[in-house]
Recover the amino acids of this structure.
């Protein structure tokens, strides 16, 4: 079965510093990978996806993610963190090859950006 | 557009009571989903629907029923609530062939 792992429950970073939120995956076949963000008391919002092509994927709010096939990783990055980036971040992978596109989510990583 | 809306936002039930959570979307999406979110467990799929009149089980369907009588609405029912169903419930929708899912704001349910 497809799965993703987010090894860090929480990441702390100072405003202005670069941030990385880690995700590793386990899939059969080509991976379809996603990042979502959840702000307090809100639903999840789509940030970016990797389907195929360039290993560096750019998304919303200045975030990007690097797909690394050899390390089976899909880490979320941002060059300069903002306090407003503080939220819960979920990595997800498509479950299944064809037909209905279910997503399998990781357990989430809380990002805290301090002023 | 309102996107995906959920009612109610909060609810407290006693064990054994029943309730229905309503999800509505105005984006003409074919696919709709119900998830539950629990601390340390991420989101788990309860049931989903690929179109009006169709439903299917997800990862954790026991204790829940769903209906999709209209394309824009997806109802989640708890026939006899249990404390283990205390959670935050999210509805989502998407287009076929697009993997981005659009989420509602959630319903926080407590079963005592």
């Amino acid at each position: 079965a497809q799965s993703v792992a987010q090894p860090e429950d929480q990441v702390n970073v100072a405003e202005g510093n670069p941030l990385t939120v880690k995700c590793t995956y386990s899939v059969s076949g080509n991976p379809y990978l996603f990042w979502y963000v959840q702000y307090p008391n809100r639903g999840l919002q789509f940030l970016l996806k990797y389907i195929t092509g360039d290993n560096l994927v750019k998304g919303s709010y200045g975030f990007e993610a690097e797909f690394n096939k050899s390390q089976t990783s899909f880490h979320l990055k941002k060059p300069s963190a903002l306090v407003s980036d503080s939220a819960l971040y979920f990595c997800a992978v498509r479950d299944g090859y064809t037909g209905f596109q279910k997503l399998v989510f990781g357990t989430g990583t809380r990002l805290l950006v301090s002023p | 557009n309102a996107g995906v809306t959920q009612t109610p936002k909060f609810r407290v039930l006693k064990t054994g009571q029943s309730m229905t959570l309503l999800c509505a979307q105005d984006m003409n999406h074919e696919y709709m989903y119900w998830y539950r979110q629990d601390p340390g467990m991420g989101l788990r799929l309860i049931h989903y629907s690929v179109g009006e009149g169709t439903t299917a089980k997800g990862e954790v369907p026991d204790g829940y029923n769903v209906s999709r009588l209209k394309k824009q609405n997806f109802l989640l029912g708890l026939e006899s609530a249990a404390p283990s169903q205390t959670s935050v419930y999210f509805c989502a929708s998407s287009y076929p062939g697009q993997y981005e899912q659009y989420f509602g704001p959630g319903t926080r349910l407590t079963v005592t």
Notes: The longest strand of chain A covers residues 87-95. Chain A touches chain B through 21 residues (CB under 8 Å). Residues 100 and 110 of chain A are 29 Å apart (CA to CA). Chain A has no helices and twelve strands.
